[in-house]
Amino acid sequence: MRNLKILLTVAAAGVLFTSCYERQFTPTLGSTPVEFVSSTIDTTLNSSTIRIPVHMTEQSGTGAKATLVFTGGTVTMKSDGSTREVVEFTNDQTGYENGGDILITSYTVNIGAYDEEVDGEGLPTNSFEILVPDYLTFESMTLNFELKADNLGSNATLTYTATAPTEVDFTGMWNIGGGQYQITLDETGTGYYIYTELAKDPFTGSRSGNNLTINTTGPQLDTGAEYGVVTLGMFAYHEETAGDGTFYLWPNENCVWSFGEDGASVTLTNGMFIGFPNPDNPQSYIYFGDTYVQENGTTGSRM
């Protein structure tokens, strides 16, 4: 085992300035009908926030008000494929005790009068916001709504269907740079365990699309009399041309594995280092040979 020096990086934070138009949120109400923009929405379930748009049927000079009513739905679970009724979180003691699958943040929205700068050639529009905290556990979700207003257009009901994106199966045995790694789902069915040949217990990770981000702090390992029990870490690894032959790692940067759509290949997007801090020199790390130090762009394959 050899020592590695550490190079720490500092990320600069930028500030993004945006401008917007002020909308008339307490409109003078008229008689223009309001309706859902569409009677059906079929989309991808990839966010904890759902927006249901409604609009007036004309470019009216007066505003409108609309109320959303949830009339039921179903969810299919990723863990076992079972289907059940959607539970709506209610803003009362029962809701706080029992929770729910969806939370409608406001049942009523105002639609401001037509504003050429905001609406352009379109119709005055606003949206209901619905939160789905556990969306990652759902394979699919169907929600049904009704719209209530003093004057309704033809699209007064809506069926919202969302399906989890098609994702590569991470689980199985993988060979990366000569090292073998087993990936399994955790008990929730949404996180992952990454087992190495170094320790009995795994690293943990989470997915975003077809990328697996691995937590930097891993399992404990008994190295024997020399170093005792240590905590393994997995970090990003970048080889720099410092001119002195030194290798560098980023101990605060998560290692990210990107899986190919074929389900048979994987790429280390920012390298990989597995090791532990040197107790005798906190500025250096100890690792287990070149198998566990790989440059960014290293590829692997399913075994």
Characterization of this structure:
The chain is mainly β. It contains 2 helices and 25 strands. The radius of gyration is 26 Å and the shape is elongated. The two termini are 27 Å apart.
Low-pLDDT sequence parts? 1-24
- Give the CA-based shape: elongated
Can you count the helices? 2
Largest sheet: 8 strands, antiparallel, barrel
Order of helices and strands: EEEEEEHEEHEEEEEEEEEEEEEEEEE
Strand percent estimate: over 45%
**Percent helix among the residues?**
under 10%
Radius of gyration: 26 Å
**What oligomeric assembly is this protein in?**
single chain
Structural class based on helices, strands and sheet pairing? mainly beta
Distance between the termini: 27 Å
Mean of residue pLDDT values: 85
Give the neighbour order of strands across the main sheet: 12-13-14-15-16-20-21-25
DSSP strand tally: 25
